[in-house]
Amino acid sequence: MLTAQDIHWQQGDKVILQGIDFHLKKGELVGLVGPNGSGKSSLLKILSFLERPSSGLIHFQGKSIAGKVPLNLRRQIAIVFQEPLLFNTSVFENVAAGLKIRGVPKREIQPRVKNWLDRFGIAHLEKQYARSLSGGEAQRASLARAFVLEPEVLFLDEPFSALDAPTKESLREDLAEILRTTETTAVLVSHDFRDIERLTHRAVVLINGQIAAQGSPTELLHTPQPENVTKFLTHWRTHPIPS
Ligand SMILES: Nc1ncnc2c1ncn2[C@@H]1O[C@H](COP(=O)(O)OP(=O)(O)OP(=O)(O)O)[C@@H](O)[C@H]1O
């Protein structure tokens, strides 16, 4: 449903992405991993149409994306960032905002929002103002706001990295269950291999703006890889996810 061929991205003199070939099938959960500054967020921005590549081809839903992305295609994606970007209104209003913009009838908005508040365990916070939420609650609201739109592709850029360990773990488990039951298609950027192991089918390792390896988390960890990938994966090999 989403493919990127030979993507290059340069800002000024800095080459950020080089020769990226990426594909995402319906229902697939793909993780982008790699050292700091390797281009993970940049690739996510290009795949989610927030930035345009310097060269290369992108196809989404069978259509070539060049120039301005049509609104009907843009509305098929949702993005969740590390810092939940919430409006300073109630949690309910935050989650309802995207549906209102899309002209969804009021009678439909109420049950859809309530359903997602409930699934993310924040129904009791619906009247609370966004600024009064804890980090974990705010990220739950931010995820509910994305899921309520029923996007064709969900992009998650380090959604847990601002959270403390227990908050992160409980949200990761809830998100894993929601991704599984909704068969969502998603791309996740994370530094934490536990997120990748728990939430994705395939991990793409970026090093210096290039794809250095890809495969299931198990394949990556248990089959020989190029030296730069092995070096990067070493930390994760020595910190396995508890079973
Ligand atoms: N708009 C921009 N203009 C110039 N340089 C940029 C821009 N965006 C990103 N970069 C640079 O491109 C490189 C890749 O950045 P990016 O944020 O994509 O990496 P990352 O893998 O997501 O890093 P991290 O793990 O630290 O979040 C970095 O050196 C960054 O400074």
From TrEMBL:
Organism encoding this protein: Effusibacillus lacus
Family matches, as Gene3D superfamilies: P-loop containing nucleotide triphosphate hydrolases
A GO MF term: ATP hydrolysis activity
Domain ABC transporter: 2-233
Keyword annotations of the record: ATP-binding, Nucleotide-binding, Transport
The name this protein goes by in its record: ABC transporter
Cross-referenced PANTHER family: SPERMIDINE/PUTRESCINE IMPORT ATP-BINDING PROTEIN POTA, SPERMIDINE_PUTRESCINE IMPORT ATP-BINDING PROTEIN POTA
Superkingdom of the source species: Bacteria
Pfam families: ABC_tran
